[in-house]
Amino acid sequence: MITERLDVHISDGRRVAVWRSTSGDPGGPVVVISAGYARTMRSAGAIALCLVRNGCTVYRFDSVNHLGLSDGEIVDFNLEDLDESFRAVIDLARRTERVHEVRLVVLSIAAAAAYKIAVEDPGIDRIVGLSGVVNGVRTLKVACGEDYSVYTQAELPPLVHVDGHDVEPTRLWQAMQPGGGLTPELITARLAEISVPVVNCVATGDTWVDIDDCRQAFTATRDNAPRILVELPFNGHDIAKNPAAVKLVLEELTRYIAGPTPGHDGPPEFEVTFPGFEELLQTRTGERDRAVAEQAGPEMAGRAG
Predict the structure, then answer these.
(1) Closest CA relative to residue 17, chosen from 39, 40, 36, 38
(2) Is the pTM of this model over 0.85?
(3) Whole-angstrom Cα distance, residue 300 to residue 284?
(4) Tens-place pLDDT, residues 63-76
(5) Where are the chain's structural domains?
């Protein structure tokens, strides 16, 4: 896998760091991955490698006001910045690859941003989620250990602890209020508007993304286009870190992203090519070193294979 660093800027000039990964061969689907909250683009290295091995050109990014290599800090994290960063990278992928259709892979809360984008962008070909959030109010309640949605704005503390990081809560609180981007009502309404296939791979024992919420949202919105819920027999939200789940997760994500367009009847016919263990390990080590080098300046990282 050949990876190069690209940068793009959002409307106010802040820089979004992007990794573009290919096999070196032209053509194939163009995929943009958003790794979700408190995860960097390096966290999706195994997914990117598997997709590249199956013919995709893959773009990953760190949102502004988040962890990673882009401008800003996670204390200022909010959905609007994630949305704008995501759109900027989609536009970059289109310009660079000279394509219109782009496929999205989204982890956790990034699903909420992807659904909004797909409603407004006819060039999104499909969305495949891993632990994709359909009820952000519930997810943040579990992540914070407190239901801040029932607070008034004046009652909010200066910072809230979300999955190991302190975040200024106002804009997340706004997204949890009626009509906000994290509410199950709005997420389900957006799912109903999307006219392309949407897949969500969710562990049945995920306490952050309730499987019954997913079943309800995907059942209620499947008339317009395929809605496929892949129920994985594991526990936990970050199942890509579960060694027992990794191969199944990579297989499902790759089949639905790299294969033919999914239909209502289930997974498309597609034989997934898996990278070897040594290649996965080398990718993980190499991308860790790349990220360290790029913290000092993108020019120090060069190209990694």
Answers:
(1) 40
(2) yes
(3) 18
(4) 999 998 899 999 99
(5) 2-300
